[in-house]
Design brief:
alpha/beta, Nucleotidyltransferase, domain 5, 2 domains, globular
Amino acid sequence: MRIAVADLGTNSTRLLVADVTPDGRLTQLERLTTVTRLGEGVDASGRLAPAAMERVYAALAHYREVADRARAERRIAVATSAVRETDNGPELAAHVREQIGFDLRTIDGDEEARLTFLGATAARPATNGETLVIDIGGGSTELVSGRPGSTPAFHVSARLGSVRQTERHIAHDPPRHEELVALAAEAGAILAEAAPAAIRDHIDHVIAVAGTPTSLAAIDQELDPYDPERVDGYRLELATAERILAELALLPTAERRRVTGLHPDRAPTIVAGVVILVEALRLFGVREVEVSEADILDGAALSALFQ
């Protein structure tokens, strides 16, 4: 089956067009990302801003054209924290289904975690050890652990994200030291409460997905243009993430936009995203993480076979 899957995230709206076989093999044809900032102001207002909704509609209208050109047999979409936590999320969902033509589901944190783990681990061999998948979104962070090829043994969705924490803690450009300290303290506390020590002690391998780790992999390799083949599977050391965080935090947003490897539209929220990743790696006691291009989009495409 050829399927088009859109993900309406808090910070970006993304598309995957892929061929999926009954035995669970996925061949990517297109993967697109548009930073739409759907969650802008949501933490304070509890509502999606009209301008943010229009940005998402424009991105999805373009994705509909891409899907149609590719002759996708199905068009589905998943919406996560920015939609499920807002009063007017149903209004956006109805417009996407009725006017743009994507069969949209607003999924809860448990389903988001399951699809993320499936997507990140589907192409990896089964192991005896526990694998942790970290997915830092704009409004929430998913921690999922288990063995590739099996149902996750543990998953949690924490109210912790690059957009949410930027709006909550960073009021200056560049951020002040005390703002970063407060952000890191809150992130560390939320993550520690979300992932008990009993879970942390049994992790053998860590995979990080989504825009924060892929940006770090591209920055570390100075990729221009972005090359997904060099990003997928990249081994990112904690010390490297800490170094890049220190460098990015010293720059105002205008200069951050010019950093090689970083998409300019990610510049306003990347610092908070990296703080969250660094705190997660410290909490789990790992010195290195594998970066993955495959994520919830791939998991949703694979799951669609059985729906």
